Amino acid sequence: MRRVILATYVAMLLALAVSLGVIASPSGSSQEAKAYNTCNNFGYCGAHYYYSTVPWSDSTGWTGAKVTAMNLAGISWNYASPSLSLTKSTYCPCLANVGTVYQIGIVPGMTYTSFNPNDPYEVWFGPSYLNTFFTWYTDGTMDRDNAKADVRTVTLHEMGHWMYLNHDCGSHPSAVMCPDWTAKWSLTSDDINGMNALY
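-> structure tokens emitted (199 positions)
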């Protein structure tokens, strides 16, 4: 049992390291977008949901302005591609979820995308976690040194990982998918181009 837990924990850390750019993801796909690559850590490029609708849920237990901020992030991605609908649902099972976790460190959000074991190009589930080690705001506050983060900025970014968009801040640092500790509430053309490359 301990081995299973340890293996799961190591896999989650590796996924996090890839998403943060600590470990480089494979690149070179013809579907690669400019601000990030669309290859997963198994070396498969172009992985995506096989559905036209991706229902997502909120298990944070948060209320008020924080929920509104998450909903607005979801609406932004919902309109990013004519081929994919991202809709919040209270009736699950869902294909993605926003929850919380407490983890001391500098990462306000994390996403662990899972794939179909028989088809590594198919994204199965995208759970995201907002780190309650941070104090969460809804006014655009992003302050790494004091562990403060903006709900909409971080959720918008993590939702991009649901669709298996990754980051490479080298060419488009203003993209939502480039985490740089500034408030980002609107998708850029590059975020949208990356989405449409997959869907």
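The longest strand covers residues 119-131.
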